[in-house]
Every structure is written in C-alpha cells, then in structure tokens.
Amino acid sequence: MKVDKREVAAALLPAALLGVAALAAWLVATLAPDTEGRIALGLFAGLMLAAVAGTLLRQAYLRWVHAAARLVEDAGTLLAADVQREIAAAGAGAEVQALAGIVNQFAAQRAALRSDIAQQVAAASRNVEQERNRLAALMAELTQSVVVCNLDGRILLYNRRARLQLRALSAHKGATPSAADGAELIGLGRSIYALLDRALIAHAIESVQQRLGRGAANPSAQFVTGTRAGALLRVQLAPVRTVGSGDADALDGFVLMLDNITRDFAGQAERDQMLHTLGEGSRASLGNVQAALEMLDFPDLDASTRERFMAVVRDEVRAMSARVQQLAAHSAQTMKTRWPLEDMRGDDLLAAACRRIEASIDNCRASVEQVDAELWLQVDSYSLLQALASLAARLAGEYGVKLVRLRLTRDDKADAAHARLDLVWQGPSMSTETVIGWETEPMRVGDESVGLTVRDVVERHGGEFWFERERVRHASFFRMLLPLAVEGERLEASTVVRGDSRPEVFDFDLFQREPPRELAERRLAELTYTVFDTETTGLEPSAGDEIIQIGATRIVAAKLRLEDAFEQLVNPQRSIPAVGIAIHGIEPAMVEHAPTIDAVLPSFHAYALDTVLVAHNAAFDMRFLELKRERTGVAFEQPVLDTLLLSAVVHPAQESHRLEAIAERLGVTVLGRHTALGDAMVTAEVFLKLIPLLAERGIHTLGQALAASEKTYLARVSY
Amino acid sequence: MNAKHVLIADDEPNIVISLEFLMKREGHRVSVARDGDAALATIRAERPDLVLLDVMMPGKSGFEVCQAVRADETLAGVKILMLSAKGRDTDLAKGSALGADAYMTKPFSTRELADKVKALLG
Fold it and tell me: How far, CA to CA in Å, does B100 sit from each of B66, B84, B94?
C-alpha cells in the first residue's frame, strides 16, 4: 500500500511538536534539576496530547486534503476516459462531497447531451438516407434522361433512362465499325464532355449564371446538339446551387435533362414533306381538272372527246380525295405523338379505373368484366380515368346505376391499331341527345369540374367514342377506341418503369470532391482513374508489334467500379506470333472481325477522357498508344501513374516489381491474368492498396506521386 | 400559213389530253413527249416553234431540258413556256434565269395559256 507522506506528516506533526517541547523541558531540567518530577508529568501529558492531536490532525487531513485530491483524480479519469460512473466521496468533508455531487451532475449532463447528439445524428442520417432513396426512386421513374454533373463535368449521378438512351445512341454509330461495344458513354465519375461539347455546356452555364445574377428564381438553359453518332439531343441544363454559401449565385454543378429529338425532327421533316406533296400534288390536279373543264366548255365537242375530259375530272377528284385522306391519317398520327401519351398495360388501366370510380363516387361499385391481358395501350391515363369516372358519376347520379363494369378487348375488325374500352351497365338506356351531351359537356367528378370534355379526351387519344345497347343482356355501354402501344416502345417502357426502381449507380459522396483545377495538388484517393492494360503481338512496337486487346476499368473516389469496364479486341492487321498466343490466348480468328486500332483508339480515348491513366509498366503500353498518335490523331495527354514505379517507391528494397509479385506482397488475389481486362483489374486493386502505403511515406497528392515515380531509378529505364 | 409546231412535254396524260386538244384547236401541229429525255430529243430533231415544258418529269427535269436547249445556239428559235406545280417565287426565278420565255403555275386558265402561246408565236 502506498503511504501518503502528507498523511504521515499530519499524524506525526503533534508528536514532533511534543518532541521539541520535550527537548526544551529537558534543557530546563538540566539547568534546574528540582523541576524533574513536574517535567516528567508534563511530558506524559504532552505525549497524550500529541497523540490525540496527531490523530485529529490526521483525520482532518484525510477529510479535507486527501479527499479533495481523490476527487481531483476521479474527476480527471471521468473527463479523460469517457466512462460513466458515479464518483463516491465517502468520508470526505461536506464541501468535498458537495463538489463530488456537482461533478457527478456534470457527468450525467454530459452523458445526456452525448446521447442526444447521437440521436440527432442518427435521425439526420436517416433523413439523408430517406432523401436519397426518394430522389433515387424519383429519378428512376422519370421518363426523361437525367444526368447530374459537378462543375467539371464529372458525372455524379444518372438514371437508368439516361443509360438506356445513351447506350442506344452509341449503338447506332452505324458506319464506323462500332468500336468497343463494351464501353458505355456514361459512367460514374466520367466526363460528360465525352458526349457533349464542352463549349456548349460552358455557354449554357454562363447564361444560367447571368440569369441567376439578374435574380431569376429557377433559370435553366436549353440547347440542341448533335452527337457523334448523328442523333439530335435537346438538352436542358439546370444549375445545382451551392448549399449554405453566402454567394447565392455559386454553383456546385448542373443537372442535364436529355431528350432524343431525332425522331421528332424526322417527324417534322415528314410533315413538311407531306404538306409539300399535298400542295404541289393539288396544284397539278387542279390544273388538270381546270383545263379539262374548260375544254368541256367548248360547245362543239363530240361525245367521245367529251367523255375523255370527264374521265380526267373524275380521275383527278379521286386522286385528290386519296391525298386528303392520307393527310388526315397522318395528322392523327402526329397528334398522337405530340401528346404525352404513356404506355400502360390494359389490366393496370382497368384496375386503376375501378379504384378511381369507387373512390370518387359513393354507392357505385366498379368491376372488371373482361380484359385482354396482352394489350398495351398508349394513353394519357390521368385524363382518361377522369373521363371514365365522370361518365360513371353521371350514370350513378342521373340513372341510379349501382354497378359499372369495364371491358377491354382487341378491335377484331381491320383496325388493329386500336383497342376497345367499354363502360358497361345493366338497365336503363338513354337517348342520342343525352349521349352527345355527356360527350361534349365539361366533365365533373364529385364537386370538381374539369375543363375538358370526354370528346377532348378521346380526341387527344386519336380515338372514337359512342354508345351501344346489348338488348339480349339488357345492358348498355359506352365504347372508346384507344390507341395500342407501339411494340418497340412499350418494351423499353416496361424495362424502365417495372425494373429495379433505384438508379444502378449512385454516389453522392462525389459531390464533396473538389474540382481538379490544380490536378497535381489533388489527393490520390479522390481522383478518377482509368486503369488499363494492353495485350500485344510482341514487345517491340517500333518493330511492328501491334495492340490486339485493350482492357480497362475505373477507379472513382478510391473505389473500383467494375461495372464501368472497357474491353475490346483489336484487329492488328498482321499475324499473331504463336509464342504470344500461349500467354494471352488470343487466336488470329478471334480478332479477324474486330475493329482496327484506328476505330478502337478514339473510343478508348473517350472512355479515358479527363481521368488519370494507371498501368503496370505504363511506359510500355504508352509507347504503343503514342505510336498511333499520328495516324489516329488521338493523343493521351493526361497524367500517367505506373504501379511498377509506385511499388518501387513504397518497397525500394524488394527485388521484383512484377505485377504478380506486387499482388502477392499486397495480398491481392490474381484472377484471370493475361487478359487485358483481367490484368487491368489486378493493377487497379494493387493501385488501391498502394495509395495508403504511399501516404505513409508522405506521398498524398498526384503531383507528389508523379515526382516520386520519377525519382526511382526504374523511371530511367526506357522502353 | 399560220400553223406552228408545238411540243407538249409532260408526263401526266390528264393534262396532255387537254393541252393537245387546245393547241390543235388553235390550229397548231402538236407532238407529245412523256419525259425530259424524249422532249430534248424531239426538240433537237424537230425544232418545234414552241415547247410547253413541264418542270417535274421523270428523267431530265423541265429545268434541265430548258438549260440544254438554251445552251444550243441552233435551237435559239425555240420558244419555251414552262408549266409547273411549283408555285414558289424561287422556281419562277429559276425558270426565267435558265432561259424560259414564260412560266405558268398550275392550275392555270386555258384561255390565258392560249393567249400566252399566241403572243410567243406572234
């Protein structure tokens, strides 16, 4: 047990004083021997007194001084160690105990505050998560393509529709032997400028910022641009404003909404053509008719000549009727495409209609009588449900109908482009005037009046509406002809709407990233990389060896993005030595129909745009790319990191910096080596492991990594 | 003798029938060509006094025929009256630029046509 020196001193202090007194008494006694007896007595009494005083003083010390010191220690522990316990001050003085009590209260308060903060943080995270999911769901459901980028044009977020649409755009590249089918135009962290002209976006941002500066609330900019694949895109750009910045005009990034209007344009051109044909065709016909009629005016015509001119008139009238007919059909078609009609499954529509009718009309039930489950309709479901509900409401209100049934069947007559939607009820029939009234009066559902009429709705669908009786069943029905969905379109719609309702790629953390204005100063962990590898016919590009495969994968914000990979065989337009085939396994037959490097390199360049390149023994691969620069006009000017060099920086004492050796050293599992993509993936994982090791050596930024690479002696080896 | 040779170059029988009747009635000798190439061949072979030339024909268009005729000095005497369903000012301008003597847009009055022909042949 530790002896408290101060405690001992306190206990012995009276005894020490007594000792001094005894010494004094002894001196007195030596000088005056007759006082000896009294001194002894006094000494005894003093001894007793000293013992008592010593005990009291020790207790006082324990009570006041030592208890306070213990309190200091306990409170210190409490503060430092984040433990939650009561400090006990048993045997301490009242003030010390009170102090201990207050310390305990502080500790309790701290604990309460902490748990409160923890709860708030948890709630906030839940909110953020919820918001994310909501946004994700919303974006997934949008029928428009949406891409969110930061100010540097890096893609932070996009929805499925955008990917489908952009994939379709890259798919019909047509003439060029579609290089790199594995490569998508869109990917997280990739540059939007691979797809859209940087100047166009810069201009749009500028105009948005100008309008923001003038105080516009929700400015956006629009432009139309052609893609390399020849499609026309209408792009709407809306700003993402910096949250919490004092500058209201500061932008964080932008949202792009993309519309492929190639088809609209084609439609427009077709309409123009149509009008033109109608105009010129009619002129010619009218000319023929007029001339013929004027000939008929001559009184001296014989019967056969007369008949010939009459035949001209009849013929031309027939031709003009046909043209007008064709125009009418065409306008109905364009009407349909201009209204935002959505593809919807027939049974979904009927189920929704039943719910709508029962919800909006008291004491009227609705059921599905018959539905062709195969049918997909092209409808504006909102207005169509309104029309059905308003008709049912009038039936219930004016004829006391308690049950309506819905029926959807294919039109089995010649008209295969429409389906028949019937609203059937048992009992009372009605006059034609009433039906016309219901068709042309503004619709009402409950107290709510809608500006549209049933006829408007039907016309919006390019359909028809009428009333029929089924005498046998004692039933009546309203029938609507509604357009069927076009085959190709509805498939796409079904994958979009019914698929996974989250965007596949989604990483808001990317929003936090700084723009790469000072690329060299950016941290390695936050950059976007294209990690690639090539397979070649041999080791000497200058002696005619060629690339036969390029594989690449992407690292975004220190995460490997396997879904955004690039893999492409290349026709080397020369033989492949058998020695190599044993290693890379690429036989001549496999590349026979592959695109040449002239087609693949631009595609790979687009994939790698605005990223840092990473390769193992990069100098080798870069040499192959460089040699094609003149011929293809494609230059890879971005910074290049070499895992071989970085490994040498991290482990200078190691002898081997072959990819397998590094992978083994860093615990990276090697799978599928010696395909370009397989090697690229191993390289990427190795690179990710190297980043923290580099950081240990004080290498944090791209600039530092490049400088360190250069310093290693291996950097001087030239291929 | 006032009878002149008129060539009708048009691929539409429904107008040829009326034009042929009209021109014959005016006392002219009439030939018919159904397309641009036939029209040019007839013009070169027979040197008609006047051609009623439709712009839109299979093979050579009326414009091309007109240009070819005007490029040949030996055919300078052949009058050209262009007939067209194209009513745009630009077409009219093109026709006269290429050397047509007159240009009429369909539909036209046969009376007016007859007057124009008379004036050109006069």
Answer: 7, 12, 9
CATH 3.40.47.10 assigned to B5-121: no
Q: Do B107 and A309 touch (CB under 8 A)?
A: no
A625 in Cβ contact with A636 (< 8 Å): yes
Chain B hits for A286, Cβ within 8 Å: 106-107
Could you confirm whether A674 is annotated as catalytic? Answer: yes
Residue A325: its pLDDT value, please?
Answer: 78
Helix (H, G, I), strand (E, B) or coil at A466: strand
> What's the gap in Å between the CA of A191 and the closest CA on chain B?
47
Q: In chain B, how many H helices and how many E strands? A: 5, 5
Contact predicate A343/A485, CB 8 Å: yes
Average pLDDT rounded to a whole number, residues A495-501: 32
Q: Which tokens belong to A240?
A: 């993402």
Q: What is the mean pLDDT of residues A597-606?
A: 89
Would residue A661 be called left, alpha or beta, if left means φ above 0 and alpha means ψ between -120 and 50 degrees?
alpha
Q: Read off the tokens for A572.
A: 């080397």
* Assigned fold of A342-496: Heat Shock Protein 90 (3.30.565)
Task: Please give the average per-residue pLDDT across A521-533, as a whole number.
Answer: 90
- With CA atoms as reference, report the closest residue to A676 among A539, A555, A547: A547
- CB A452, CB A440: distance < 8 Å: no
Inspect the interface and report whether the beta carbons of A283 and B21 lie closer than 8 Å. Answer: no
Residue A388: pLDDT over 60: yes
From the list A203, A651, A674, A700, the catalytic residue is A674
Which residue of chain A has the CA closest to B15?
A288
Mean pLDDT of A651-665: 82
B107 reaches A (C-beta below 8 A): yes
Q: In terms of pLDDT, which residue wins out, A272 or B18?
A: B18
Answer yes or no: are the C-beta atoms of B69 and B99 closer than 8 Å: yes
Which residue of B lies nearest to A305 if distances are taken between CA atoms? B21
Q: Given this structure, which CATH class describes domain A265-338?
A: mainly alpha
A142-260 folds as: Beta-Lactamase (3.30.450)
Residue A51 in 3-state DSSP?
helix
Residue A217's CB is within 10 A of a number of other CB atoms, namely: 6
Pick the CATH number of A517-716 from 3.30.420.10, 3.30.70.60, 3.20.20.80, 3.40.50.2300: 3.30.420.10
Q: Does B50 touch chain A (CB under 8 A)?
A: no
Structural domain boundaries in chain B: 5-121
Q: How far apart are CA A166 and CA A227, in angstroms?
A: 10
Angstrom distance (rounded) from CA A670 to CA A683: 10
Among the listed ranges A82-91, A177-186, A222-231, A616-625, which one has the minimum average pLDDT value?
A177-186
How many angstroms away from the CA of A322 is the closest CA of chain B? 17
Q: Taking CB atoms and an 8 Å limit, are A309 and B18 in contact across chains?
A: yes
The pTM score is: 0.38
Q: In chain A, pLDDT over 70 holds for what percent of residues?
A: 83
Q: In chain A, what are the domain boundaries?
A: 1-134, 142-260, 265-338, 342-496, 517-716
Q: How far is A310 from chain B (nearest CA, A)?
A: 10
Report the distance separating Cα A102 and Cα A74, nearest Å: 13
In this structure, of A380-384, A411-415, A608-612, A649-653, the range with the lowest mean pLDDT score is A411-415
